[in-house]
Amino acid sequence: MGSGQRSSASAIATRQHTYHHHNHCFSREGSLADVPKDLLGEIKKLEQHLSIDTKKLKEITNHFVAELEKGLTVEGGSIPMNPTWVMEYPDGYETGTYLALDMGGTNLRVCEITLTDTKSEFDIIQSKYRMPEELKTGESEELWDYIADCLQQFLDTHHGDLAPGTMIPLGFTFSYPATQNYIDEGTLQRWTKGFDIDGVEGHNIVPMLESALKAKDVPIRVSAVINDTTGTLIASAYTDPTVKIGCIFGTGCNAAYMENCGSIPKLAHLNLPADCPMAINCEWGAFDNEHVILPRTPYDIIIDKDSPRPGQQAFEKMIAGLYLGEIFRLIMVDLHDNKDIHIFEGQDIKKLRKAYTLDASFLSAIEDDPFENLQETADLFSDKLGIATTRPELELIRRAAELIGTRAARLSACGVAAICKKKNFQPCHVGADGSVFNKYPHFKARGAQALREILDWPVKKNAKEEDPVEILAAEDGSGVGAALIAALTLKRVQAGNVAGILHPENFK
């Protein structure tokens, strides 16, 4: 757990960090004293644009609660609130061997998970395959062929000895908004995370993958399509029963939680027992697509306008890893081109002009720079962008990175707080995964601070005291969670309880 956490001991040794609470952000004492007035003016403007106070956080959260409710109704809203047909928490005694395939924004991961006889324990073997960029905008067949090849390769490496006729059950983590009428189907609503492949939106992805597997004689059957947030929820609850929400803060952002079927008007026609739980994949990246509550900056508006899907994923575009570096890049280009101060004066900034050339790890590195003179940041700009920076410019760069990172963490907390308010989940644990959560400096602390403000918690009596809602590094949702969901599905099929679970054609 938490493998992404960095030790900051070395950083603290190099530079006595003097953090103080400034704009709810961890900032450096006295560091801006040497910055010229005009540059300070631009920093102040950025602070106004990107800071979100407690009152605004509460307004956003209340609107969020109403939008979550709306997504569960027949009419629906901009947050899809997709039922997943995962209808129970694991009890920790699930067993068996399962394959899990995780198709994320950057990598394709194949795992084999063995749920052991010991409570809440599992063994895992895994391989990672890079998702080639050109597949994201290529032909649909190329994508499924590539995935089938990776699965074949995995089986060749780990299972040279399969008995003829064996079909291996696969939990497919498909981390894109999908409608599910059964657990073993997923109809793509729309691509996100930079994917834009024709002929997939509006279609069930399972037959596409299965026909590629069949063509290559790969002995695998898709037994469950899951979202990574649902996987995170189930995998985290497997080892910690107080977990009530699963979240992803990575390339994209999203959450899942258990709702009572009686509170899901759009499933009323199925007459499911009112107190029966159903995991809901919120797809909350689409929160506020109408632009009524989120305080967007001119930079956010450009990102949306230039994206493959303008007007969609409004919330995600302000907080997800895919966009943080781009917000920063747009600010830097704007300050160079359009302001009286002209940062990077007289230099060729052509590398900086390339869209999406900086990712969240670039901002992470800036915020992680432990040196008083920000030497690591200077080296980063010089190596990656060919730009020489002055000391005042470095202070501006650092402050901009802090503001963008802080805003992302604080807005993220609104979603968590909204589910907690809607379901009265206090106290509870939240299992969170994703590169931004695990690796971005101070993201956890800033998020926790925002939750404290939104939910009006009293000041802690001591540092060891737990907050009523704690966001913790999750168990591996897209691997272990997928395996557990495949196991839970199998258990229900064996018990003859298949209503709404399996696609009728697949239920033999």
Automatic annotation (TrEMBL):
Residues 42-238 form the Hexokinase N-terminal domain. PROSITE patterns: HEXOKINASE_1 (PS00378), HEXOKINASE_2 (PS51748). The keyword Ubl conjugation does not apply. GO terms for biological process: glucose metabolic process; glycolytic process; intracellular glucose homeostasis; mannose metabolic process. It catalyses: a D-hexose + ATP = a D-hexose 6-phosphate + ADP + H(+); D-fructose + ATP = D-fructose 6-phosphate + ADP + H(+). It is an enzyme of class 2 (transferase). Pathway: Carbohydrate degradation; glycolysis; D-glyceraldehyde 3-phosphate and glycerone phosphate from D-glucose: step 1/4; Carbohydrate metabolism; hexose metabolism. Its EC number is 2.7.1.-. One of its GO terms (cellular component) is cytosol. InterPro entries: ATPase_NBD, Hexokinase, Hexokinase_BS, Hexokinase_C, Hexokinase_N. One of its GO terms (molecular function) is D-glucose binding. Keywords: ATP-binding, Glycolysis, Kinase, Nucleotide-binding, Transferase. Gene3D superfamilies: 1.10.287.1250, 3.30.420.40, 3.40.367.20. It holds the Pfam family Hexokinase_2. Belongs to the hexokinase family. This is Phosphotransferase. It comes from Pseudomassariella vexata.
